[in-house]
Amino acid sequence: MTDQARGRPRDPRTDREILAATRALLVRDGYDQVSMDAIAREAGVSRPTVYRRWPSKTHVVFEAAFGNAGDHPAPQPSGNFEADLRQFVSGAIEFWSNPVVQAAALGILADRRRDPQLHIRTQQLLDEQTHQAFAQLTRAGIADGSLRPDLDIDTFYDVLIGTTFYAVQVQQNQPHQALADQLCALALQGARKDTE
Questions:
Q1: Is the whole model's pTM more than 0.90, yes or no?
Q2: Where are the domains of the chain?
Q3: What is the pLDDT of residues 144-176, one digit of tens each?
Q4: How far apart are CA 3 and CA 52, in angstroms?
């Protein structure tokens, strides 16, 4: 019987301590070395205490690394599409470069294929929210004549976000602003409206 089933509210301080411990382990030891036992030891709680809150290591790690991703407001169109695009791509680079996110991302992406519940959560929190914000910016760029009217927004998104993820998670070797500038310049070559 859980604390909640007995009517005792869950202590939010314990949740915060477990998540902080998970973040520390991710950065120090890497995703593969994190376990429910290690999280419990690092947080100074029992293993059942962790399991009462999350069903598996992957769920704890997801919450620790990505739980606040939806708290950051998406950039709104400013009327300058190129500046908006750079801001968006810079934000994506900064997000994927966070040491905790960097340590967790590849493991989470692999494990979510085996866990339908986690797959849905990652889709909703990361993919859908990011895609909606990007689509809003891109539609504004099409409307103001900065981009081709026939531009496929989904493909444009995949090119930019996929390359950003690869550059940060796999290559890990570019200064952030230089990477954002290069990606935006390359993507815009194919996306701009033909002025001839």
A1: no
A2: 12-66, 69-191
A3: 999 999 999 999 999 998 899 888 888 876 678
A4: 8
